[in-house]
């Protein structure tokens, strides 16, 4: 295995996923380069598992999720879902497969049609996929609202009448409507207050256990993914730097980038928080249009050596269920 999974049968397997956006210039719109949003990402997710995908804004997390769901056409690579390559599916075959995959959006207000009632929003997938009609349709809509801890009496309200947390619950209910096996959660709590974030994460965990769901949980905050994720993949400039179990990532981080991210996560104990070392990275994240040679992190890494500037590190095993893309970390 090359992605840190334990070898069980995969629900989803991403193989060398690449997504480049062409950059054009001039009157004739000639191509002058590429924005390398996702640059050779590989991982797998097993049934019932939650994989956290974390990294700074602009590192390619959201693009990865959208490419998996085929909402964006990939440049190259494979996305195997339930043994079928989604990148080779078109039209009706892909539409039918989408019943098993859903997306929870980052912005709960922008993702809901302001002209539709809550009941219509939640029930739309039931109509699109011709799952229920009439009395059965209305009954399922009310059940979905109850699943996400909303009163059935809110079915006639419009999105602007709800709080941010309630709107995100509507988005979750809509995703659950077709009883999917796999859900991409694209920073589902980043636009919410901290107290509401905890409620939504607890809800997602309960629904995962109740309906045997599998999540790709995208976030830029390592603290957010700790409790919900079984494994965590750390992404930087379109590449995965480290992937391991949630506990190992927090207790024994190997990659210098992961270590620097964790040093910025607040600790409840003020004594420990004051005495621990904080790592301040120099400079800004390089442009994905012109990424550095070798290791993409070497321009900001406090431990970079000459080999880091010339050779791209391979994602290699560096411990039990632990994979790291770093020349300075010894292979297991």
Question: In DSSP terms, counting alpha (H) and pi (I) runs of 4 or more, how many helices?
Answer: 11
Distance between the termini: 14 Å
Derived from helix and strand composition plus strand pairing, the structural class reads alpha/beta
Whole-number mean pLDDT: 90
**What name goes with the CATH superfamily?**
P-loop containing nucleotide triphosphate hydrolases
H/E series, N to C?
EEEHEEHEHHHEHEHEEHHHHEE
Largest sheet: 8 strands, mixed
Kindly state the percentage of residues in helix: 25-40%
Beta-strand residue percentage: 15-25%
Structural write-up:
With 332 residues, the protein is of the alpha/beta class. It has one domain: Rossmann fold (3-Layer(aba) Sandwich). Helices cover 30% and strands 23% of the residues. The chain is built from eleven helices and twelve strands. The chain has helices spanning 61-68, 91-97, 118-128, 134-147, 164-176, 194-211, 222-225, 246-251, 256-263, 270-275, 306-310; strands spanning 12-25, 30-45, 50-54, 76-81, 84-85, 101-104, 182-186, 214-219, 231-236, 239-245, 316-319, 322-324. The strands form two sheets. The chain has an eight-stranded mixed β-sheet, sandwiched between helices. Strands 2-1-4-5 form a four-stranded antiparallel β-sheet. The longest helix is centred in the middle third of the chain and has 18 residues, at 194-211. It is globular and about 70 Å long. The two termini are 14 Å apart.
